[in-house]
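Support case: aspartic acid complex. Customer-provided input:
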Amino acid sequence: MLVYKFGGTSVGSVVNMNHVKDIISSTGKKIVVLSAMSGTTNTLVEISELIKTNELTKAKTNINQLHQTYKATVTELIQQETLREDVSTYVASIFDALLACVNQPHSTLLHNTIVANGELLSTFMFSRLLQQEGFNARLLPALDFMRIDSNNEPDNFYIKQNLNRLIDTSEEADIYITQGFICLDAEGQITNLQRGGSDYTATIIGAAIEADEVQIWTDIDGFHNNDPRFVQDTTALSHLSYDEAAELAYFGAKILHPQTVMPVRSLDIPLRLKNTMAPEAHGTLITNQIHGEGIKAIAAKDGITAIKIKSVRMLLAHGFLKKVFEVFEKYETSIDMITTSEIAVSLTIDDVTHLEAITEELEKFATVEIDDYMSIVCLVGNQIIYHPDTPELFQVLQDVNVRMIAYGGSNNNISLLVNTSDKLETLQKLQRYVFEESVVVGV
Ligand code: ADP
Ligand code: ASP
Ligand code: MG
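Agent response - structure generated as follows:
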């Protein structure tokens, strides 16, 4: 069985939903994971924020505006009268529920309940489009099988049991449609897999059913060698290894949610990235195979905080690093980059929830300097630290202020820490030095 995932742009208009319908019309059983229509989750987040700040009239106006947009989409999408009535009634029930949220006290649960509606809407509408077109398609509610545990990890045993039971006991179908992003938590409350989480839903499902392949369909022809939002003339990579893709996703390549690779890597299930708007393009195939050497791709992650911790005794005394790490462990805060000198250690974190408490504890035995608005620029490729072209990247040091470099921690990754205000320039210069002015093998 195959798992297909279509992102926000892919289901963002009636024209694109019809492209999706054509793509999945091939024979063979499949599970199709859908995101919300593009823009919907952002609007729902805004609505939740308005309720939080007590701007209730504005929240209601936004809900009603969104409802109008959906009414127009339904009219264009579904021609068959009974099906259209069915969809309109469902859509109206979702917007009534949203209006009811406006009068409730704001909470994380209320927020999660509000933002879940985007995927509920897109999957219902799309399932009825397939019915109209004569497909044997069924809706599998994600909340009936998708659950995370108290560590926010997928509860794989529960997911596997429930998903397979649902497939076995529901009416036989060729296409099962389900919501990306949304799930239950360990207490059975509605939550989600974080923004962009539908990719992760697809690979969790792929692992649960031991799929032959998971395909992520989006609005670009695969994984590019740099961030196309900031750099011109980036090119699509035909192959990546799981490790390369995981590292790039973790370090900010928006095309994949950071956790997407994990569930399929251990089972060796191929992950393919494809363009809904250009299905004939090769896209990117992600497997355990390694293709090429040297720097293959560059990504950047914002929202990084750098912490410089200096031993007050001016000597990197035995046990100093242990004490530092224990503080981060206590507050369950993971460290991305780290460099040390004789008297200091510099490291970066992206989760600042406990920063104040961490600083307070560190200051008991060290002086602490904090810099925020930093970005990690990450260069990834098999054996890059040994490749003869890699030194080209250090030309960037002449032009931008690089705060920290992690080189050699892994053979396949080099990370640079820069001010976020320098990120664009760094990415563009690296593109030139690394991919345009030298010969790089990594394709
Ligand atoms: P979807 O809604 O389908 O999940 P996303 O917007 O989450 O789509 O991801 C696709 C977008 O990721 C692309 O349109 C592109 O702008 C951005 N992107 C960032 N880095 C990369 C990269 N290295 N390769 C391809 N796309 C990237
Ligand atoms: N709709 C969610 C979001 O916008 C999940 C996703 O698109 O993957 O973040
Ligand atoms: Mg996405």
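The pocket of adenosine-5'-diphosphate (ligand 1) is lined by residues 7-10, 35, 196, 218-220, 223-224, 227-229, 253-255, 299 (CB under 6 Å).

Case will auto-close in a few days if no follow-up is received.
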